[in-house]
Amino acid sequence: MRRRIRFFNDWVDHRTGIQTAVRNFLYEEIPASSGWRQVFGSVAMFLFMVQAFTGILLAFNYAPTPGDAYNSLRYILTELTCGRLMRGLHHWGASMIIVVVVLHMVQVFLYGAYKKPREATWMVGVVLFLVTLAYALTGYLLPWDNRAYWGTVVATKIAGQAPVVGPYLSRLLGGEGSVGVVTFARFYGLHVLLLPPATIFLVILHVFLVRKHGVAPIPGDELAPKKQFYPAQVFKDTVAIFIAFAVLFALAVAVRVPLEQLADPTDTSYVPRPEWYFLFLFQTLKMFDGPLEVVGSVVLPGLAVLALILVPFIDRGQMVKVTRRTAALAFVLLAAVGWGGLTLAAVKSTPKEAAAVEVDYSAPTDWMQLSPEEMAGVAYFRQENCISCHVVGEHGTAVGPDLTKTAIHKDAAWMIEHFKRPSAIRPGTSMPAIQLSDPQLNSLAAFLLKLNDRNATALENAPEFATQGALVYQANHCGSCHMVNGIGMRVGPPLNGLSKRESRSWVEDHFADPKKLVPGSIMPPYKLSPRDLENLTTYLFALPD
Amino acid sequence: MENVQAHSTTNGDTTRRNFFVGAIYGMMGAISAALGVPALIYLLFPPKAKKESEWIEIGDIARIAPNSPVELTFRRTRTDGWKVISEKSTAWVVKSADNRITAFGPQCTHLGCAYHWEEGKNEFLCPCHSSLFGIDGRVISGPAPRPLDRYQTRIEGNKLMVGKLNVSAERKS
Question: A239–B43: do the CB atoms touch at under 8 Å?
Answer without folding.
Answer: no
